[in-house]
Amino acid sequence: MPALPTSVDPADPDFAARAAHTRGLVQRLRADLAAAKDERNPKAVARHREQGKLLATERLERLLDPETPFLEVGALAAHGQYDGGVHKAGTFAGIGVIGGRECVISANDATVKGGTIYPLGVKKALRLQTIAAENRLPLVQLVDSGGAFLPLQSEVFPDVDDGGRIFYNQAHLSRMGIPQITAVMGLCTAGAAYIPAMSDEVVHVRGTGAVFLAGPPLVRAATGEEVSAEALGGVGVHAQRTGVTDHVADDDDHAVQLVRELVGALPGPRPGWIDHVPAQPPVYDPGELEGLAPRDMADVLPIREVIARIVDGSELLEFKRDYGPTLVCGTARIHGYRVGLIANDGVLFSECAQKAAHFVQLCEKRRTPLVFLQNVPGFMVGRTFEEGGITKHGHQMVNAVATATVPKLTVIVGGSFGAGNYAMCGRAYGPRFLWMWPNARIGVMGAAQAAGVLISVANGQRERSGAPPLDAAEEAFVRTPVLEAQEREGSAWYSTSQLWDDGIIEPARTRDVLGLCLGVCSRAPDPGFHSTFGTFRL
Ligand code: COA
After folding, report:
1. What's the pLDDT score for residue 529?
2. This model's pTM is above 0.90
3. Which has fewest Cβ within 10 Å: 104, 150, 179, 275?
4. How many CA within 13 A on the CB side of residue 62?
5. Residue 323 · residue 298 · CB < 8 Å
6. How far is the CA of 406 from the centre of ligand 1 (A)?
7. Rounded to 5 degrees, what are φ and ψ at 78?
8. Is the CB of 147 under 6 A from ligand 1?
9. Contact 408/372 with Cβ under 8 angstroms?
10. Buried b (16+ CB within 10 A) or exposed e, 221-235
């Protein structure tokens, strides 16, 4: 198959301007990631070390096989939220390799407010459990946490997707046969006590690890009893009397080694099921994606140029190329894995939606994972298109994407707006992983359109009550806060801080991140094919 053609010219001023813009964002991303990893209150770090504990980063380094990739999830979770210092929502987490076995790993950072759990910390824990469940990966947790962050207790405790759900899910992960190994590496207080309690196997560090439903401060407040953490829930209590502890470690280093041995004793990884051949690099440099990334929605992003810098050999077997041409569908390989690509090249029309629904059915039946590259302003609006049935045709695509059982991966490379987000496998449509480029924008609609809608609604109300339309100053009063909110809340940084995605990635790394995700999906069992109908041509 010939490589996709290209008309990219790195000497073109528009290319250079986009590349400079993207590089600025990438530098900001790297700086924010470094701060989220290392910027800590020195007093909290000193207190942590005084207790003889390793930092969360050091625990992780020793846990993971050297020179293996760590696919971090939620690296900038809670970025800029709360007081700005709850880095990573309090937990280092991702998919890493332990003794050759991929695992979902989380490690509380006790130097961030005693490792207490904020609302976004709960959300992150639930997301990690979803990744473990969907990809049948063992879950390894290094716990060191004061339980709920009490000032926000109403937001972390009672609702269906609050803290209680973490332990509910642990029971169900166990039912599914997903191994859960937990190391007690500090205090595991209240809710955090349930994490080891609900796990399959528990390692417990002598001296610093303790498990209890109420720690010494709460016992003191509730009953006046003075008791040390060690006497209340240390190794002596749980290894000898309660049986919560299965393996005793002398220190953090020993605990990490024990976890490695326990993971090593699990059944080995399964062979992959996704069609795979030796990988070939793209013909064109993935680094050139920096010069393609749009600076805003006014910049056109020729999506085949993006695909040509992500897929093996820059080869794409395109499906219905001339029908619904603003959506590109086709089969390609990424790091050797066969995938069905669905990628926006403009607004979604009825024909695009029908083409996508047809293509998803083919991929579903052929057990080909789907990769969505989102740059979607939404579905086309207006009388002609409503009469042409765009709602019904959009439904066909949304329905197919929602119910496809093959692994789905999504990368938002530009805009992600309106129902286009749904049809292109936004977070609510169950992609196994969802990543964002740093320039990406997300929202119900663009800011200008949202402000326009609100001004139009206000003018409608005024007309009904006989008042004149808003004047320019009044319009600005409506428009400005909408534009400001959208500027902030529509950015990739806000999205990632809220865990609407799994992380912001550098455009040049897109292919490698997708390759790692496909490897994970391939080694999980195929969820299976459930359709009772043949393929409908649409
Ligand atoms: N909610 C909110 N903040 C908490 C907290 C909680 N449950 N537990 C600790 N913190 C905060 C402290 O106020 C302190 O904040 P600061 O850095 O702004 O001063 C920070 O976390 C570290 O606490 P500190 O006690 O200084 O550190 P430590 O390493 O000696 O002990 C804990 C950490 C978590 C073991 C200890 O603070 C503790 O036992 N907390 C109470 C836990 C509890 O009873 N939780 C019940 C949850 S339902």
Report:
1. 78
2. yes
3. 150
4. 17
5. no
6. 44
7. 65, 10
8. yes
9. yes
10. eeeeeeeebbebbbb
